[in-house]
């Protein structure tokens, strides 16, 4: 039995210590918003926050999380995360949507660190997140829109 702190609650997980965090979240805790993509921490679909940092849950064993605080797409509530979600809806960023929980987790982490990111900042922060539908321009526009929402500045009409 391993104790994890997920979305503000202590949860017991009946799994081996080397079980990837992704599978503990999905299979043991029923938090299916975090997606399996590649299993090698390359695509970003499985991104969650551990102690506020974007983390690829497919490659982190639950034993490595320890007493860390895990936040999944179901549990994000920061102003940056809410702005990203609102911008995503406003600009219709998602296409198929499969990668979007990971995209949103990474984008919200970026805006928490840097509320006024440049295109280069966005490209760097999001480089580990793959979108098979190639909505990268809409993702970038969504992050700029979310930044504008956070800073209270009107955003120019984004080209998507």
Key terms for this structure?
single chain, 160 residues, alpha+beta
Could you explain how this protein is built, in words?
- The structure is a single chain.
- The protein has 160 residues and is α+β, with helices and mostly antiparallel strands.
- It has six helices and five strands, in the order E-E-H-E-E-H-E-H-H-H-H.
- It has helices at residues 21-28, 62-65, 79-91, 100-113, 119-126, 136-151; strands at residues 2-6, 9-13, 47-50, 53-56, 69-71.
- Strands 2-1-5-3-4 form a five-stranded mixed sheet, with helices on both faces.
- Strand 1 (2-6) and strand 2 (9-13) form a beta hairpin.
- It is globular.
- The termini are far apart.
- Mean pLDDT is 93; it is low at 156-160.
Termini separation: 47 Å
Helix content class:
25-40%
Which consecutive residue ranges, at least 5 long each, have pLDDT under 50? 156-160
Quick one: overall form? globular
Tally of DSSP β-strands: 5
SSE string, helices as H and strands as E: EEHEEHEHHHH
Supply Rg: 16 Å
Instruction: Give me the side-by-side strand order of the main sheet.
Output: 2-1-5-3-4
How would you sum up the major sheet?
A: 5 strands, mixed
Structural class: alpha+beta
Give the helix tally: 6
Strand proportion: 5-15%
- Average pLDDT, all residues: 93
Give the secondary structure arrangement, pairings included.
Blueprint: E1 2-6, E2 9-13, H1 21-28, E3 47-50, E4 53-56, H2 62-65, E5 69-71, H3 79-91, H4 100-113, H5 119-126, H6 136-151
Parallel strand pairs: 1-5
Antiparallel strand pairs: 1-2, 3-4, 3-5
Helix pairs in contact: 3-4, 3-6, 4-5, 4-6
